[in-house]
């Protein structure tokens, strides 16, 4: 990537909100680890994803001082202010539970493994995800006639399981792609019930 941007006026926005949710002994590699990339990068991270409070919409950006100065000029017109009590709550939790970061990968890997084991008898095909708390599944053996948006609607209406179509993350989705995203950041009973419904499709 460094060679691609070396002689161009290009800056990087690196979405690293799942930096602490990496499984199977793998290590997250950030653009911050690369000197040349760091000089031209904004790295977005999320307290919400890391501390189970996604509804708080609290995160941060890391960038070199010159880039941060420019970002602040834009930020003041995009977001008036953060929610101070939530920032204090996060700071207190981080100080009181420094072990949380180290325990997080194992916590979610156990959920991933449980959910994937429960799905093993289904007609969905998948490879256990290496990070995040979303499992991609291929439904081409079930309803190849449906695009992912229609598949997500059909599964919700007919089978009571909500999913996320992948095409919403593309400007131009690959033709014929039959993938949906399932969240396993749930209680075990919820995952078991969802898997039972998915295996019945």
From TrEMBL:
The UniProt keyword set, sorted, is: Aminotransferase, Pyridoxal phosphate, Transferase
- What does the entry list under GO cellular component? cytoplasm
Q: Does the keyword Transferase apply?
A: yes
Name all Aminotransferase class I/classII large domain ranges: 2-198
Taxonomically, which superkingdom?
Bacteria
In terms of Gene3D superfamilies, this protein maps to:
Aspartate Aminotransferase, domain 1, Type I PLP-dependent aspartate aminotransferase-like (Major domain)
InterPro entries in UniProt: Aminotransferase_I/II_large (IPR004839), Kynurenine-oxoglutarate_AT (IPR051326), PyrdxlP-dep_Trfase (IPR015424), PyrdxlP-dep_Trfase_major (IPR015421), PyrdxlP-dep_Trfase_small (IPR015422)
Q: Which SUPFAM superfamilies does the UniProt entry name for this protein?
A: PLP-dependent transferases
- Entry cofactors: pyridoxal 5'-phosphate
GO molecular function, one example? Answer: kynurenine-oxoglutarate transaminase activity
Give the protein name, as stated in the record.
Aminotransferase, ses I and II
């Amino acid at each position: 990537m460094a060679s691609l941007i070396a002689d161009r006026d290009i800056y990087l926005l690196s979405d690293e909100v799942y930096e602490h949710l990496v499984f199977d002994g793998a290590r997250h590699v950030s653009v911050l680890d690369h000197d040349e990339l760091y000089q031209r990068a904004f790295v977005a991270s999320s307290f919400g994803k890391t501390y189970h409070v996604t509804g708080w919409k609290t995160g941060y950006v890391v960038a070199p001082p010159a880039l941060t100065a420019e970002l602040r000029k834009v930020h003041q017109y995009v977001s008036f202010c953060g929610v101070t009590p939530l920032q204090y709550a996060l700071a207190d939790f981080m100080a009181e539970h420094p072990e949380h970061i180290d325990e997080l990968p194992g916590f979610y890997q156990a959920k991933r493994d449980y959910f994937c084991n429960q799905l093993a008898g289904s007609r969905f095909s998948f490879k256990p995800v290496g990070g995040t708390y979303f499992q991609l599944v291929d439904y081409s053996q079930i309803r190849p006639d449906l695009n992912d948006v229609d598949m997500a609607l059909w599964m919700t209406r007919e089978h009571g399981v909500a999913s996320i179509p992948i095409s919403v993350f593309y400007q131009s989705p690959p033709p014929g792609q039959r993938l949906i995203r399932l969240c396993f950041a749930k209680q075990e009973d919820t995952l078991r019930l969802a898997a039972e419904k998915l295996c019945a499709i």
